[in-house]
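Hi, here's the filled form for the chain we discussed.

Project: internal
Contact: R.S.
Residues: 157
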Amino acid sequence: MGHAALAGADDVRRNDYDGRGFLSDSGLAAFCRFFLKTALDQVRFMGSLLEVEALMERLARYIGLESSRSSLAPESVHVLQETCLRGEISRGDAMRVTGRPQRTARRIVKDLLDRGLLASDSPKGSVRIRFSASNAAHLFPNLYPDGVESELTDRQN
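And the returned structure, exactly as it came back:
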């Protein structure tokens, strides 16, 4: 259907009511409908895989699990959620978001950067969320089939 719709956009005008130029307006309209329907289908498909609406809850579960296994502070979830919502935050915002003293907030941001959950372009610059293969299976469970996360982690190491 895609190639036919694209070819139809370049069809010659069928009659005097099919546009003003040399090409068919109805062919172009059919291609545009096909293109938009396909794009919407892909957005819905990726939305079902990523389940972005539930991402905050999955971040909280992931940080809860990681903080029970290691020295990651439970307040890390607030930094990740805020970063996810805003796109990026300044390092100074970490203190406000966590409710912890400046030194502790800096350590939390450093831990998140070291674990690959946050990224920054400079040592003092703002931070943004970073999804890696090692945490993608936990944060986006529908994106990878079962068992793929260990394969991805093995490749990284």
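Let me know if anything looks off before we file it.
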